[in-house]
Amino acid sequence: MRIKKAILTGGGHATRLRPITSLINKHLIPLANKPMIFHAIEKVVEAGVEEIFINTNPGETELQKYVGDGGHWGVKITFFEQTGGPQGIAHVVNEAKKFIGDDPFIFYLSDNIILGSIKEMTDEFNKNNFDCMLALSKVPDPNRFGVPYFDEAGKLIDVVEKPQNPPNDFAVTGIYLYGPKVFFNAFEKIEKSARGEYEISSIHSHFLKNNFKVGYREVTGWWKDTGQANDLLLANRLLLERMEASEFPNHGSIDKSADISGKVHVGIGSQIKAGVKIIGPVMIAENCILENCEIGPNVTIGSGGELRNCKMKDSIMLENSVVDADIKITDSILGKGVSVIKKPGQEAEGHKMIIGDKTIIEI
Prior knowledge:
The chain has 363 residues and is an alpha/beta fold. It contains eight helices and 29 strands. The strands form seven sheets. A seven-stranded mixed β-sheet has the order 5-4-1-6-11-8-12, sandwiched between helices. A six-stranded parallel β-sheet has the order 14-17-20-23-26-29, with no helix packed on it. It is elongated, with a radius of gyration of 22 Å. The model has no long low-confidence stretch (mean pLDDT 85).
């Protein structure tokens, strides 16, 4: 039975990414100038999904506004609130039971970024009639994830959530495939963990201990759980590097003196003025202004951004932010409406800063 439905995550509070996520849903943070959740949607649509169900925090409105009803991708998208507060990602899936019914489905954590396709994984799942299929990836810190356990013959026998002493360097990534009915039956048999959550690893452990047919496949290429700022920057860089040159059209106005090399996208209404040097890959959204600055490589600039008299590389700048100062910015994330400007007049005696919680500044 071919998988036509998928559940994607759109909730959570992403406290490790504050202050960026204080005012924006984590899943809307742009990677390669595209909201993170769009990358997840594209992956499941490529795998043949026709209906997508996205969980949200209570009262969420921004996610629905950005994502829409799915028409952009030729699918149907439905949003649902996770009731009862955060109770683990297995609980997120169970909340979508009325949408999934008895059909097989993909569960995709939208903050997972992979460079490869999941179509081969879904094809293998269909061919072998698995009850469940897991995507594995080698990581340097498996104790942060669910970890697969194998017997001496290499057979998968268990999955343990965040073990203190992992027996291998594999992690179960946030991409899961389930056959008809099996997930919801298993959910009724698991209990909350010590941290008060219904762990997805408990579902998989139940399957393996009760002789369900569980397959696995190592993620090819590159995978990242974007739980921290450095993960976002790395994902942004790799996505930019992988994109084809045809995905970097120029629609703005570019001064003849500007020095542009590599893959560079300039959005509609953007102005690249005199004194600008851009080293691709760089993506500049709509209605931006760049003047007397050096940008790139691996930079994305959100709509309405302004950069003057500065240098920036390996960074993400969200919409309507301004940098106008003799400063070199690297490995940074600037949120919406940020201003980094030089004090007018005489040399400042100090630096004026209005800084939110969890901000990091290196000077």
